[in-house]
Design brief:
It contains eleven helices and ten strands. It has 248 residues and is of the alpha/beta class. Strands 1, 2, 3, 4, 5, 6, 7, 8, 9 and 10 form a ten-stranded mixed beta sheet that branches. The structure holds zinc ion. Zinc ion binds next to loops.
Length: 248
């Protein structure tokens, strides 16, 4: 029994956890909650920004805890613009320091990859969601003399909302995935309300200010997105930035 426990512990210590977050136009209060939690627990998180604000600025200026990525929105009515160029240009102020991209709604098209290669120095694109994928292997996407790595990710908070057996604990997730890399994606609003279902999300989205503290407490009493993040903070897994996956 002791041997088995030791073996399991060794197995866990060989796993690497990569936290990511699509900021998703969250409120300053929600971003502040998420940012403070990452900083106070000395975690590392790769964030994909959607807008500029005081809170996103604080993360941009804290490279010890946050790696910067962009979250371009190519959907109809996007506040980032209507053309590929306009949307990517929106991120001009951070393109120098940004390491990667994940598109809003995970929209993918080859001209987008070509454009990133030709016009930015981003090292990776991480819009391919592959739930519980065993082996995460970056894939080299070449465009003329430029290269960008496509990286899949294997867990996302709101994708757990609809599966039959959602996982809200990092050790449980690690036990289901034999590969060493666990790449998780969180949204500040789901962390703030510890959301665990679409229904709860809609409630939290529409909570009026008077009801907010009460609902917040109710929603905190269940397992959800924040439960997963807390289990990571309380575990002894190595936490890394996405760009570290590309270092051989
Ligand atoms: Zn998004």
């Amino acid at each position: 029994m002791k041997d088995l426990k030791e073996k399991l512990n060794n197995l866990h210590s060989k796993k690497f956890v990569y936290l990511t977050s699509d900021i998703e136009w969250a409120t300053e209060e929600q971003i502040s909650f998420f940012r403070s939690y990452i900083v106070s627990n000395n975690l590392k998180c790769t964030i994909f920004i959607t807008h500029y604000s005081n809170e996103t600025k604080k993360m941009i200026e804290d490279p010890a805890h946050f790696e910067i990525g962009i979250h371009p929105n190519f959907m109809k009515g996007s506040s980032h613009g209507t053309s590929l160029k306009q949307v990517i240009d929106f991120f001009e102020p951070v393109l120098e320091i940004a390491k990667g991209a994940r598109s809003h709604g995970l929209l993918n098209h080859t001209s987008y990859y070509n454009y990133l290669c030709e016009n930015t120095n981003l090292s990776y694109e991480i819009s391919t969601y592959m739930p519980r994928l065993e082996i995460i292997q970056p894939c080299k996407f070449e465009y003329r003399e430029k290269v960008i790595y496509k990286i899949p990710f294997n867990w996302e908070d709101d994708m757990e909302f609809t599966v039959m057996e959602p996982i809200w604990n990092i050790k449980k997730l690690a036990s289901k995935i034999t590969g060493e890399n666990l790449i998780l994606n969180f949204h500040p609003i789901h962390l703030f309300y510890n959301n665990s279902s679409q229904e709860k999300y809609l409630i939290s989205k529409n909570i009026d200010n008077k009801l907010k503290p009460l609902k917040k407490e109710l929603l905190k009493n269940q397992k959800g997105a924040f439960t997963m993040l807390r289990s990571i903070a309380e575990s002894n897994y190595n936490c890394k930035f996405i760009s570290e996956l590309l270092i051989k």
